[in-house]
Every structure is written in C-alpha cells, then in structure tokens.
Amino acid sequence: SDKKEPDAKIAKTEEETSDKEEEEKSTKPPAGGSKSGWKNWKKTKESDSGGEESKITYCHWLLKSEPESRLEKGVDVKFSIDDLKAQPNQTTFWDGVRNYQARNFLRAMKLGQQAFFYHSNCKEPGIVAIVKIVKEAYPDHTQFDQKDPHYDSSSRKENPKWSMVDVQFVRMTKRFIPLSEIKAHHLAHKADGGPLKNMMLFTRQRLSIQPLTQEEFDFVLSLEEEKPQ
C-alpha cells in the first residue's frame, strides 16, 4: 500500500518536484572535484578513531522544508529556516507527513538527536542549518483538521495514522551547503567507497524525512569548513 501513497509531505514542505529537477536548477559541480575532500576527511577521522570504522546506524536526520511560498488547498506551505527562528523558543512541530516510510522515520527519532534543515523545491536547494529533536513522536493534529491541506478522513483519533515531532533551532551552518556540492561528493564516494555512497538524499530523493548515519552527518558537516566549490 505504501507504493500507492503520495510522495512524502509535511506542512512545511510539499515535494512536488523531484530532487532530479532540483539538481537541474542548481549549478553543475566540477567533475571529480570531491575526491580529495573525502580522502582528507577520511584521514582525519581515522586519526581520531584509530582507523576503526563506526557502526552503521541512523542517528541523525535530514528534514526538507520549502522556503518559498506555495499554496496547497489555499494554504501557504512555505516554512524557511527564518520562519523556524521566528517561532517561540525557536521551536515548532513538524507536521503534515503523509508517507509511511517518512512517518516511521519520525517515530524512530530520539530526544536530542540532530538534523539538517534542508531548503527544498527552490532555486538552489541545500542545507542551511542544524536543528534538534526536542519532543519525540506524538499524533499529528492536522490529520483531524478538515481545514488543513493534510486532513486524512481515514485516520481515527483512537488509532492515529500519522505522527509528528517537535524540533528546535540549534544554529545556522557556517555556510550554505548546496545540493550540487553534496551530489559531487556522493558520486565520488560511489566510486571510492566514501561515506555518502548510499546517502538517501540520492537513493530516495523525494522523501522529506531522511535518516543519516554518523559518518554521513559528520562528512556533510565538515563541508561547512571548506570553501564552496
């Protein structure tokens, strides 16, 4: 039944365009420009860990959100990082997910885990900030609101189908990390076995909630220290 579900959605992001289309909007990265970055990062990480590879588990996340106005059933679903920062205590609920796999990822989130805030479906998609989970999964109230664009008439209050979490702003990344740059590393890592080789941003592009391994999170975070390609 999950195959028949619409693409992952949240009130803050409606993934009507695929990441392939987003990639076409972004600047094409230089060929092979990421390998040296991966090797330098790997050398540093091996030095820090004594050369031991970390166990592959999902402990961080990537949350997509639309920074530009777009109406869904008469409601503007825009929600940028500036909108989050403007919320009381810079905290909000992450509602509107209507894809079973994305919902299950929400339900797997643990208190205190960090996530990348990713601007999606815009001129130049990419990572802009870090947020953290401050409340674990609980029923998404929008599924019961007939005026909400994500109302689900098949969901029952005694057994809710959809969940949400609360997230809080942590900090902006030191620089904007564009999708095009992340893709360049992903392609290089597919060839040489780097940490982004299986990154879900490219294997399940349209999911708005995506898990990250520790290595994936650490490598992407390390990019904020580098000059843009």
TrEMBL record:
<dbReference type="InterPro" id="IPR052181">
    <property type="entry name" value="5hmC_binding"/>
</dbReference>
<keyword id="KW-0539">Nucleus</keyword>
<dbReference type="InterPro" id="IPR015947">
    <property type="entry name" value="PUA-like_sf"/>
</dbReference>
<keyword id="KW-0597">Phosphoprotein</keyword>
<protein>
    <recommendedName>
        <fullName>Thymocyte nuclear protein 1</fullName>
    </recommendedName>
</protein>
<dbReference type="Pfam" id="PF01878">
    <property type="entry name" value="EVE"/>
</dbReference>
<dbReference type="InterPro" id="IPR047197">
    <property type="entry name" value="THYN1-like_EVE"/>
</dbReference>
<dbReference type="GO" id="GO:0005634">
    <property type="term" value="C:nucleus"/>
</dbReference>
<dbReference type="InterPro" id="IPR002740">
    <property type="entry name" value="EVE_domain"/>
</dbReference>
<feature type="region of interest" description="Disordered">
    <location>
        <begin position="1"/>
        <end position="52"/>
    </location>
</feature>
<feature type="domain" description="EVE">
    <location>
        <begin position="60"/>
        <end position="222"/>
    </location>
</feature>
<feature type="compositionally biased region" description="Basic and acidic residues">
    <location>
        <begin position="1"/>
        <end position="15"/>
    </location>
</feature>
<comment type="function">
    <text>Specifically binds 5-hydroxymethylcytosine (5hmC), suggesting that it acts as a specific reader of 5hmC.</text>
</comment>
<feature type="compositionally biased region" description="Basic and acidic residues">
    <location>
        <begin position="43"/>
        <end position="52"/>
    </location>
</feature>
